[in-house]
Amino acid sequence: MYLSTWEEKALQGEFGEATSIAMNVLTKVCRALKAERLVEIRHAHVAGVSYFNISDEGLELLEELASKGARVAVYTTANPASVTVSRFFEPFFDKNVVTKQRRVIDVLVSMGIDEKSFTCTPYKIRMPRQGEHLAWAESSAVIYANSIAGARTNREGAVVSLMAAITGRTCYCGYHVSENRYPTELIEVEFPVDSISAASAIGLYIGKITSGVPYIRVKIELGSRLRDVAIRSMLASIASTSSSALALIEGISPEAKKIDTKHLEKLAIDKKDLADILDCSCTSEGIEGILVGCPHVDLDEAHEILASSISKLKSLGVKKMFIATPIFEEHRIAGFIHSIEGIEVIYLPGACPVVSNLKAANILLMPTIHGKAYHYLPRLAGVASCILNIA
Amino acid sequence: MYIEHCVESDYLSLDNTIEGEAVKAVVLSFLGDVDKNTGLITSIDSGCSGCGISKKILVVERFRGSTVGTYILYSLCKKGLGPRAILSIEPDPVVVAGAALCGIPMIYELPSNFVQSINTGDKVKIEQRGKQVCIVVKKEY
What we know:
The complex is a heterodimer.
Chain A: H1 5-12, H2 17-32, E1 38-40, E2 43-46, H3 51-67, E3 75-78, H4 95-110, E4 134-136, H5 139-149, H6 158-167, E5 169-171, E6 185-189, H7 196-209, E7 214-217, H8 224-241, E8 248-249, E9 266-269, H9 275-278, E10 289-292, H10 299-316, E11 320-325, E12 339-340, E13 343-349, H11 371-381
Parallel strand pairs in A: 2-3, 2-4, 6-7, 6-9, 7-8, 10-11, 11-13
Antiparallel strand pairs in A: 1-5, 12-13
Chain B: E1 2-8, E2 18-28, E3 57-63, H1 69-78, E4 85-88, H2 93-102, E5 106-107, H3 112-117, E6 123-129, E7 132-138
Parallel strand pairs in B: 2-3, 3-4, 4-5
Antiparallel strand pairs in B: 1-7, 2-6, 6-7
């Protein structure tokens, strides 16, 4: 693998021990991925923030790297933490767990990661430019950056994304290379999409049928704010049921413009294909709480979702709405409602319920409108889920 | 009986010859299949349940599992419970990253029949010969 003079010097330790460690890991991983060289990045986004995911071993590595002088070389954001950092959930968890989650956040901030990030929507803080190279972990953000911004990033692992942040480089392979960004099939959605939950179901379905890079023809009939949430939710869902990191949406993705779809195999999705996902009613015993914000929603988006779904929430007997939102929204929370028509609204700034042990908080079921949360809640949070067609 | 396989390695250079006993797993993840406090393999389908990887030459036919595996391998090494080297057929980036953090060699793209022929208990020597890295396996019968 080709290394530049700077990269060779970094590997030899000229820029400090932490940079040398990071360059060593990065070059070995890139070589294993058959990358010919590294590529300089403009923005890194690191995952592996939830203490439930990385546990003591992850915290130990982060603190050791920091003690050896690790600093990010480019602008870097981080994924949300577990819900142990939220006022509502903290009392349910052991003090030791809460403290260690705080230590993970503190050590990342000490390396120069934006303390106002801790979100799965880093593009809301800094929208990447078209063609820009990134090293982002977090599959939902990766597919958004590639598909909507036209930027270039692979789905980096947690450790590699941090090494990329420290060196300012990543492996030049996969979605960084133009040839790998051409669609593999045309997927036509045969009905207009009028809700976030329908967009989620479509995304989960597309993830199961795509061979890699779907070109999607879909009409979304929602106001601009909810339309954006629906697109994010659809893309995040595709990335949950597939390893895809790019979907070209007609009329939206910058790279979709130059695609001639004539030669692509065409697959059609009608409403019946989504029946299994959308028709589930969760439970007959009433719903304690539902999750909104996977990927994170800002407070304006959250309240539009709440306003448009309030009558359905009441008829379902929903008692709580959990809203996962970026930490940069924290200062605005006081200005927003905390209950409406008997429904308690609980904000989780900088946190993600999906990567948290929700059983510890006595939660058994967490319905949602988002495909990614529906896919991962049973696998990662240990609770049942379903998609409620309420918004 | 000896079996020998050499690789041209642009990515690997050994400072010292490494010797140790092989521990062979058919399939392995560092998250879930290895006890992070003892370094013992715990999964039955690994084909070597109860084997300790500490100071051994870990030979794995196929890796599986989560990206958290990098942290676990690194932590085992910090506790002195890591293997001396890892041999495999395909490079799993999660394990490659962990081995790099441990400072132990990971040799991959080895022929599958060579990896399959190594058994737990075989004596393995890994040495640099010019530009080549050679793996010598002494079979125990």
